[in-house]
Design brief:
The structure is a homodimer. Chain A has about 130 residues and is an alpha+beta fold. Chain A contains three helices and five strands. In chain A, about 35% of the residues are buried.
Chain lengths: ~130, ~130
């Protein structure tokens, strides 16, 4: 049975359940950093998804990427499925800008995260949900 | 008109042209590191691909990921579309192991690449082409 990896649970907030994945906000206000977690047990690699699941998750990546582009007009979107530390399949979709902390490097392993205030987290979550359902 | 970004041209070897992307080997023998470049002009983001192109490129990512898993049985596959330095859309697909140089961090921006010998490059390229066409 699927259950969210404890590390992902500790580091994120649920934004919304989508068709195959749930969408989470990374608790690091240095970036607009979303994470998709397909709710399928014992999965660590993209290529392990069956054809229907794969198409659905890829569509969720596209939608999430477009959403960040539309809302925040970043310089670049970074999409990554790494999983070296947390082997449960999860896909990072991150809005990047030339003035952000890690630019032009990757965000992973780059300094310490800065948690959201409750107010800012609630605002961003609402904005994203409105965009997804609007 | 599409032409390969000079930085990608300098850092990689062509392995094979696929349906939508060409597949390249990164010239860094520390990892089995492949790069897919969709041959479409003026493209920097995955979500800019139209539906048919997107499905084709996602299929090429899946195939490349499966290929590395089958050939090298790595601990993890890392898939990433970043583009902070080279804005032409390109997707990294990298076989990772616990004893590799950057583990468990990402490979990007982590030390200096170590070029292949001509012999090793030829062997790996042949192995990958055989797997793709076999």
């Amino acid at each position: 049975m699927f259950s969210l990896h404890p590390r992902l649970k500790a580091d994120t907030f649920l934004v919304k359940k989508l068709q195959t994945s749930s969408l989470y906000l990374m608790n690091d206000c240095r970036y607009k950093w979303l994470i998709l977690v397909p709710e399928i047990a014992d999965l660590s690699e993209l290529h392990q998804l069956n054809a229907a699941e794969f198409a659905s998750v890829m569509n969720e990546i596209k939608k999430t990427s477009q959403l960040l582009a539309d809302l925040y007009t970043p310089k670049k979107i970074n999409v990554g499925a790494l999983g070296n530390m947390v082997d449960q399949l999860h896909i990072h979709v991150i809005a990047r800008n030339e003035d952000d902390f890690a630019w032009p490097g990757p965000v992973w392993g780059n300094g310490n995260s800065i948690p959201y205030t409750e107010q800012l987290r609630a605002e961003i979550t609402k904005t994203i949900i409105n965009k997804l359902t609007g």
